[in-house]
Amino acid sequence: MRISTKARMNRLFNGGGCLDVAIDHGVCNEPSFLAGLEDMNGVVDALVAAGPDAIQMNYGQADLLQSRPERNKPALVMRIDMGNTYNAQRHRHMWALLQNQDEPLIGALEMDAACVVVNLFMLPDEPDLFRQCVENISRVRADCHRYGMPLMIEPLVMLPNEVRGGYQVDGDADKIVTLVRLAAEMGADIIKADPTDDPEEFHRVVEAARVPVLVRGGGKEDLKTVLAKSAVLLKQGAKGLVYGRNIYQHANPAAVVNALMAMIHRGAGGEEAWDIYNRG
Hints:
Elements: H1 3-12, E1 18-22, H2 40-50, E2 54-57, H3 59-66, E3 75-79, E4 81-83, E5 96-98, H4 106-110, E6 115-122, H5 127-147, E7 151-157, H6 161-164, H7 173-185, E8 190-193, H8 202-209, E9 213-216, H9 223-235, E10 240-243, H10 245-248, H11 253-266, H12 270-279
Parallel strand pairs: 1-2, 1-10, 2-3, 3-6, 6-7, 7-8, 8-9, 9-10
Antiparallel strand pairs: 4-5
Helix pairs in contact: 2-11, 7-8, 9-11, 9-12, 11-12
C-alpha cells in the first residue's frame, strides 16, 4: 500500500474488511435501479444508522452523507464515471465518460471521499467502450497518485445483450481473472469484481488482483442465497462486499447490513448471518 493512500484506505478497511453499500445507481439512467432510492435523504439516514463501513455515491448526492455531523459515519466512496450499459435495449453508441472531464477528482476531494471508483467494461463487440474505460482509468490514475486518493477499478465482463439484456454479467472465471489482472496492471488500489459462476474459483480473482478485492453484488436475489454465496466468496479471500439492491431494495436494510458486517468483520458463516438477519 502506498503511504499516500494509507489514511484513506484505513477509513475503508476498518479491521481489514469493508462493507460498501452502493447507492450510486442514479447515473445509470435505468428506471429499475431507482426502486428503493426515491427518497435519498431517507436512504442515507437509514444506512448511517445501520453502520456499514462505506456508502458509495455520486457527487450530486454525496452532501447527504458528508454534511452530517456524526463523527463515525460511514466513509464515502465516490463514483466518478458514468455510462449507458445497463439498459435492456443495446444503444447504437455505447459510452463511458468521467463525470468531470477536466478535473475528475475535484468532487471527491471536495467531499472528502475515502476512495473513487471507475468502471472497466468488457462487452462483446464493443472495443470502443473498452478503450474509453482504459482512457478514463489512465486519466485518473495520475491524479489519484498525486492526491493520495485510492482508486477502485470495477472490471465488468458482460454477456451479449441478446442473451439476457440489461444487467448482463458474465461469470466466466477465465474472463473475470483476465480483466482483473488488467485492472491490477493499471494500478488499482482496490478491485471490485463480479463473483465467478463457481464461487469456489474466486480465489483466482484474489490472486490475480494483488490488492484488496471487494465482491460486486449485482441484482437483488433471495437473501439466504446471497448470504450463503457471500460466505464462500469471503472464505476465498475477498476483503469485503459492495452490495446495493440486495440492501436498499430490502424490507429491512439495517438487518441485512448487520448480517453482512458480521460476515466481514467477525467471520460469521452463511447460516449464522441468516440468524443474525432474522433477529434484526
